[in-house]
Design goal:
single chain, 597 residues, alpha+beta, five-stranded mixed beta sheet, five-stranded antiparallel beta sheet, binds the ligand Nc1nc2c(c(=O)[nH]1)N[C@H]1C(S)=C(S)[C@@H](COP(=O)(O)O)O[C@H]1N2, binds molybdenum atom
């Protein structure tokens, strides 16, 4: 290869880069399932399987086991009720009345409306949450997510012959691992649609939290809290008594309009005051910005424990919803619906009619969610950004400082993304990066080109930090490289520079859609932990992980950490770069450009 040839290749590479700045997004964009995310074949998620030691069992077994268990419980409960001591116990603790004060306000309008909002919000939160899980269909308790250590999974094992990092193009990436859900279940169902699912999840989370805060306030400013907050320990024997009465199919008398029985009090209390706040907290614990600030990447609060608990909250909610709805129907549907729909202790059939109409509307919303999302993805992205962008902006202002110990380093670090495939990149790689130079340009006083040797001659920074992929996996690794703040001191950004764009040698996932790139807030570049890394765990960066250079911005999710960096550009606004949404995944997969969570 001649010098001219290298120069020509470099010029061509630069032209392709320039072309990025001059792209125009198609006006009428919808999700093309064939091309989306590089045309990954749709791999349907399995029903969860659970690991028991070395064996995997389908959670389907819980259905016959559960049914058999229920039959057994009924038989035992009926038998128990024959005994005198049980009859005395139930007489002493009837489960209802006496120990819980009567609520005089019935079911006020605010409560009835909030109940309806809650149903609608929860259904979208649950569906989009499942979609997020399907994007990394494994749950672990260790922060490194080594394949094979998961306790729950929605697909088979990672192929053992695809974990060798020395074979970059064959390494099993976390995108290879994604699964799809049926469109009526997930939002929006197809494989690797986490970007869109997250807008639904976070937007509805926010509305659900507002609904919840209003509920707490109204609950405690009226007498309604007395329905669901136990006021003495006698709630426990009363709950047990209620459980025996239900299980023996000889139900306790229902006074739901004025007070709940022991079992109801406990179930509602756990749902409202334990499960709901836990969902919020374990959501926050999955955020890189929170972990980088508070050091929760390791130990009991690590992201994988948080994901697991988040999932268990989902299981609780599903069990609660199923039992709640069943009980509404088997303990007197007409009067129960009168309570919660009309707020009256009557038996009017009007409540039944309103219930039927509402159920049809809710089912319509359910069915519309996926088609609307696939047809108008940009609108979903914009609406989500409008609703939750400000909260992500606040989180982005935390300062990362958490570091971990050598022994926290994960034995296996997942890889992601499409490798560079240009001859230009291969040539530079073959030269041992001797021919590589990093271009730094745009709104700076002193545009620069830094050779690999020059970069390595700059002060070296090392840090052990945790990587958080948007898809759900994490991993602790030691990174070594040049501080971006040192680069800033060299090039001296102009006051007009507000964003820093990192361009990769590699293209994005979809064919012929240009380079992978990501925009970062300039303030983040001053953080001492923002690095251009050329080492991973003390070794030169392997190709899969981004050789020769990759970004670390500990505040942000993994996809913002551009690998195989070719150039850096300082700009005033992100709208002129690529399609203007802040990065390749933001343009093509509808991610948000602020991703501290
Ligand atoms: N050029 C480029 N950089 C990229 C990606 C990519 O597809 N192309 N994927 C990103 C994503 S989604 C993640 S999670 C991290 C993964 O880094 P790792 O493979 O070193 O673990 O790289 C990021 N950097
Ligand atoms: Mo990622």
């Amino acid at each position: 290869m001649t010098i001219d040839h290298i120069a020509a290749q470099r010029a061509e590479s630069e032209q392709r880069l320039e072309a990025l700045l001059d792209q125009h997004a198609p006006d009428d964009l919808h999700v093309d399932e064939q091309r989306f995310a590089g045309g990954l074949a749709q791999v349907p998620a399995h029903f969860p399987a659970l690991r028991l030691g070395r064996h995997w069992v389908s959670a389907w077994w819980l259905v016959p086991i559960g049914l058999a268990g229920m039959l057994l419980v009924v038989a035992v409960a009926q038998e128990l009720r024959q005994f005198d001591w049980m009859q005395q116990f139930i007489a002493r603790y009837p489960g209802e009345g006496g120990f819980a004060p009567a609520v005089t306000s019935g079911f006020p309008a605010w409560l009835r409306w909030q109940h309806l909002f809650n149903i609608i919000l929860m259904m979208f939160i649950i569906r989009s949450g499942l979609q997020i899980l399907a994007d990394h269909p494994r749950l672990y308790l260790n922060s490194g997510c080594r394949p094979g250590t998961e306790w729950l999974r929605l697909r088979g094992p990672v192929p053992a012959d695809r974990m060798d990092k020395n074979d970059p193009s064959r390494v099993w990436t976390s995108k290879d691992d994604t699964t799809s859900l049926p469109k009526w279940l997930g939002i929006p169902g197809i494989r690797h649609s986490i970007g869109l699912a997250r807008w639904w999840h976070f937007s509805f989370d926010l509305l659900w939290l507002l609904n919840g805060v209003a509920f707490y306030v109204l609950l405690f400013s009226t007498d309604q809290w007395q329905r669901i907050v136990p006021q003495s320990l006698s709630v426990f024997p009363n709950a047990l008594s209620t459980a025996v009465q239900y299980a023996s199919l000889n139900f306790p008398i229902d006074h739901g309009f004025v007070y709940y029985n022991g079992l109801q009090i406990l179930a509602y209390f756990i749902t409202v005051f334990i499960a709901a706040p836990l969902a919020f907290l374990t959501g926050l614990l999955q955020a890189p910005a929170v972990a980088a600030r508070f050091g929760t990447g390791r130990g009991l609060l690590n992201r994988q424990v948080a994901r697991t608990v988040h999932f268990l909250v989902l299981v609780w909610m599903l069990v609660f919803i199923a039992s709640h709805v069943t009980m509404v129907f088997v303990t007197g549907a007409v009067s129960n619906l009168n309570h919660i729909i009309l707020g009256t202790d009557t038996r009017s059939y009007a409540a039944l009619a309103i219930f039927a109409v509402t159920a049809v509307v809710v089912a319509g919303l359910w069915l519309a969610a996926t088609p609307v999302t696939l047809r108008y993805p940009r609108a979903v992205q914009r609406t989500g950004r409008f609703l939750v962008g400000w909260a992500k902006d606040l989180l982005e202002r935390t300062h990362p400082r958490a570091t971990y110990r050598e022994k926290d380093i994960s034995p296996y670090l997942w890889a992601n993304g499409r490798l560079p495939d240009s001859e230009h990149y291969r040539r530079l790689q073959r030269s041992g990066w001797a021919d590589y130079s990093l271009r730094i340009e745009g709104l700076v006083e002193r545009p620069l080109r830094l050779s690999y040797a020059q970069l390595r001659a700059m002060p070296k920074h090392e840090q052990i930090t945790q990587h958080y992929c948007i898809q759900g996996w994490s991993g602790v690794a030691k990174w070594g490289g040049v501080a971006m703040s040192d680069i800033l001191d060299l090039v001296r950004p102009l006051p007009t520079a507000r964003w820093v764009v990192f361009y990769s040698f590699a293209d994005g996932a979809e064919p012929d859609t240009g380079r992978y790139y990501a925009c970062h807030r300039i303030a983040h570049m001053r953080e001492p932990m923002t690095l251009l890394a050329y080492e991973l765990n003390g070794e030169p960066l392997p190709e899969v992980h981004g050789a020769p250079l990759r970004l670390r911005n500990e505040l942000e999710l993994g996809f913002k950490h551009v690998k195989w960096i070719e150039a850096i550009q300082f700009v005033a606004s992100i709208t002129d770069v690529g399609w203007g949404h802040g990065g390749y995944n933001e343009d093509h997969e509808y991610f948000g450009y602020r991703m501290p969570i």
